[in-house]
Amino acid sequence: MSAAFARLRDRVWRAILLGMGLGAAPLAPGTFGTLGGVLLAVPLGALLDGAALVLALSGIALGLFLVGCASGRAIVRLFGREDPGCVVLDEIVGYLVVVAIDAALHGRPGPWTHALAFVLFRIFDVLKLPPARRAEELPGGLGVMADDVVAAVQAAAGLWLLHAFGLP
């Protein structure tokens, strides 16, 4: 592999893993990274509804999840460890999972739902309640991604409870 190709490959990996730069935020990169999911979900919600919205959100989340799972070696090569805070692709996927689940259960999410999904996902991602902590121990890119998907399912359950009590 040529040096020019290796540099290009590493730039592409860096852009994807850092959520197009959101993960480079000096404070709370995971929170800024989650905004990448919001920036994808809100316009999709404005364009699509029903099954099309759920399919789009789920498909993008799955595609990015698979990219993240394949990124294990690139993460270590670029950042020197398995799960540095600046890697936020997992937060983007996590937010999309929360919103996809909510859209499947309650239809197109409105602004309050997006806000609650954001806050709940960040809480569950930071707390890493079981089994999220265990999922984080999986090897390579799978471990980077899996704990955020678990946190997303937990956040979606919390959002479902809020809806059940009449909150938006």
Summed up, what is this model?
With 168 residues, the chain is mainly alpha-helical. The protein is built from 8 helices and no strands.
What does this structure look like?
It is a single chain. This protein is about 75% helix and about 0% strand. By secondary structure, the chain is mostly helical. The chain has one domain (about 5-165). The chain starts with a helix and ends with a helix.
Question: Mean pLDDT score, rounded?
Answer: 96
Runs in which pLDDT lies below 50 for 5 or more consecutive residues are none
Number of structural units classed as domains: 1
Main sheet? none
Radius of gyration: 16 Å
Strand content: under 5%
The SSE order reads HHHHHHHH
The global form is: globular
Cα distance, first to last residue? 52 Å
Sheet/helix structural class: mainly alpha
Report the helical percentage. over 70%
How many beta-strand runs? Answer: 0
The total of helices stands at 8
Defining traits:
single chain, 168 residues, mainly alpha, 8 helices, 0% strand
Outline the fold blueprint.
Elements: H1 3-17, H2 29-47, H3 50-69, H4 72-79, H5 89-106, H6 111-127, H7 132-136, H8 140-164
Helix pairs in contact: 2-5, 3-5, 5-6, 5-8, 6-8
